Amino acid sequence: MRIHGACHCGNLSYVLTWEPDPADIPARACGCSFCVKHGGVWTSHPAGTLEVTVRDRALDPGYFFGTGTGRFHVCARCGVVPLVSCSLDGRTYAVVNVNTFDGVDRALLRPQPASFEGEDTASRLARRKRNWIGDVRFAD
Question: How many Å apart are CA 45 and CA 72, to the nearest integer?
C-alpha cells in the first residue's frame, strides 16, 4: 500500500510504502501538550519506506522540544505537522501523522492513547530505532 499525505498547503508531502497491505493501521494519539494542540496521531511501519518532499525548505524550520531529539516538521505556511524525524547513528527515522493522510479509509485506523512521560532519552531513542520507519529519504 502506498499512503500519500501532506500538510494542508502541500509544502510538506510524503509517500509511505507499507507492505504487505495493512489489515489495520496503529495510530498512537500522543498525550503531550504539543501533539494534543496540533492533532498529532502517529503511525509507523518499521519495514516501510518514506519519501518526503519539501517544496520550500525555508517553510520547514523544524521544531524541537523536550529531549530535542525529534524534529517536528511544522509547515510555517499552514501550521500542519505531517511528520517527525530523528537522526540516529547516521540514519533518519520518522513517524507520520495519520491526520495528514490523503485518501485512506479512516476505518483502517486503530487509535490508541500513548504517553512517553518519564521515558529517559536512551530508552526513547531505542524505541524509535525499533518502531519508527527506518528507511526515510528527503527530496526537494
Answer: 18
Domain residue spans of the chain: 2-139
Q: What pLDDT does residue 24 have?
A: 96
User: Residue 116: pLDDT band by 50, 70, 90 thresholds?
Assistant: confident
Q: Is residue 9 packed enough to be buried (19+ CB in 10 Å), middle (13-18) or exposed (0-12)?
A: middle
**Four-residue CA torsion sign, 95, 40, 6, 140:** negative
**Cα–Cα distance list, 24 to 108, 113, 124 (Å):** 5, 16, 25
Q: Cα–Cα–Cα angle for 6, 72, 70, nearest 5°?
A: 135
* Residues 3-25: tens digit of each pLDDT: 999 999 999 999 999 999 999 99
pTM: predicted TM-score of the whole model, two decimal places: 0.94
**Measuring CA to CA, how many Å separate 41 from each of 35, 63, 84, 94?**
7, 17, 11, 13
Assigned C-alpha cell, 79: 501550521
* CATH 3.30.1330.10 holds for 2-139: no
